[in-house]
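Incident log, support desk, overnight shift.

02:14 A customer reports that sequence design results differ from what the structure should imply. Their input is reproduced verbatim below. On-call engineer (initials T.W.) acknowledged and began investigating.
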């Protein structure tokens, strides 16, 4: 017969009320708060939480949708002014739209970056390295939609088309380059975020683009490792390419027979000035190439990272919305002491200003903006 264990009566623990004056005194002391402790607890209870995630989430009160953004322009202002506005304020430390990151008053990018606080020297070097290879002069059409928020998108499209025909702007269509982010309406997949890709339109001033071609010509002719034949091919390819662009300011694509020499087409593809116009394998045989901007992938990667970050952040909340100050707080990151972690100055954004992340998503219809009694609010639209 197997042994069975049953606890002895002596092993059972029972709590009994004690009348010991010492025990009673110890319990009473624990309930007493010293004056300093009361003061500390009072300060803590009155403090606003430093992180948006700690804020009790309630649906934001919509005051109206008549929003005036910090960078908004009227229809009386030129599209070229809008481009300059974005480019002059795209980096947070030099943006005139806010003064969150006071830096040394200088035109030197290096001095401004190294005057930033709460960033290590390695982080500052990484910023300078990234920006050195960052393509200059690019903006997305969706950002322009937000700048002219009180006008419809057709106003921007017509202004862009006019600028292209006048030879002031160069437009590029990059296939499958922008994320399409949607929230499932299926009750069994509530809040699930899915991703796809769509074409994106980017713009640059024609003068900036031609300066890039000129720099590429000079670099090819100064390349001591290249043979005379290679330098000759580079010169003819880039010169013929620029001549074609001058004659066709609205051209988005070229065909294989646009250039007499197929080697020139191959050179332009290798240099990043032309790309295959489709990412679908069954269309690769079509002899059509999209005119492109070298290294624009670096720019689009950052824009896409910003849109994805924003959607994921808003999607965490019950009502898929946050105040702009809360978004900014998450963008930077804050310590429990209330100091900025400067996360936005690290990969993948390296100081890119939040205004243009919001502008891109707003122009794409991914989010909407509205006024509340305590500031601007931003909400996911659920657009595919």
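02:41 Re-run completed on a clean worker. Output:
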């Amino acid at each position: 017969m197997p042994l069975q264990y049953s606890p002895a009566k002596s092993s059972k623990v029972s709590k009994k009320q004690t009348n010991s004056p010492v025990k009673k005194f110890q319990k009473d002391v624990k309930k007493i708060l010293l004056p300093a402790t009361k003061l500390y607890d009072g300060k803590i209870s009155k403090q606003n939480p430093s992180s948006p995630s700690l804020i009790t989430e309630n649906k934001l009160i919509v005051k109206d949708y008549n929003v005036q953004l910090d960078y908004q322009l009227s229809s009386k202002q030129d599209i070229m002014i809008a481009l300059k506005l974005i480019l002059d304020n795209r980096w947070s430390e030099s943006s005139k739209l806010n003064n969150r990151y006071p830096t040394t008053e200088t035109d030197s990018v290096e001095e401004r970056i190294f005057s930033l606080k709460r960033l290590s020297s390695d982080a500052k070097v990484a910023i300078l390295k990234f920006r050195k290879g960052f393509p200059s002069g690019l903006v997305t059409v969706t950002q322009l939609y937000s700048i002219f928020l009180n006008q419809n998108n057709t106003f921007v499209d017509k202004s862009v088309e006019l600028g292209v025909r006048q030879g002031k702007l160069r437009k590029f269509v990059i296939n499958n380059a922008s994320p399409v982010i949607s929230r499932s309406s299926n009750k069994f997949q509530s809040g699930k975020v899915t991703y796809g890709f769509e074409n994106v339109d980017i713009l640059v001033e024609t003068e900036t683009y031609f300066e890039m071609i000129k720099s590429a010509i000079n670099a090819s002719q100064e390349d001591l490792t290249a043979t005379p034949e290679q330098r000759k091919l580079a010169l003819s390819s880039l010169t013929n390419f620029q001549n074609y662009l001058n004659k066709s300011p609205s051209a988005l694509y070229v065909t294989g027979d646009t250039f007499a020499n197929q080697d020139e087409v191959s050179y332009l593809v290798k240099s990043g000035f032309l790309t295959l116009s489709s990412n679908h394998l069954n269309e690769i045989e079509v002899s059509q190439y999209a005119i492109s901007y070298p290294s624009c992938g670096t720019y689009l990667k950052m824009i896409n990272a910003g849109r994805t970050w924003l959607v994921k952040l808003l999607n965490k909340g019950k009502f898929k919305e946050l105040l702009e100050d809360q978004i900014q707080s998450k963008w930077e990151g804050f310590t429990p002491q209330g100091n900025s972690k400067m996360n936005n100055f690290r990969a993948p954004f390296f100081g890119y200003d939040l205004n243009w992340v919001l502008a891109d998503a707003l122009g794409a219809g991914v989010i909407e903006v509205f006024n509340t009694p305590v500031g601007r609010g931003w909400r996911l639209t659920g657009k595919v």
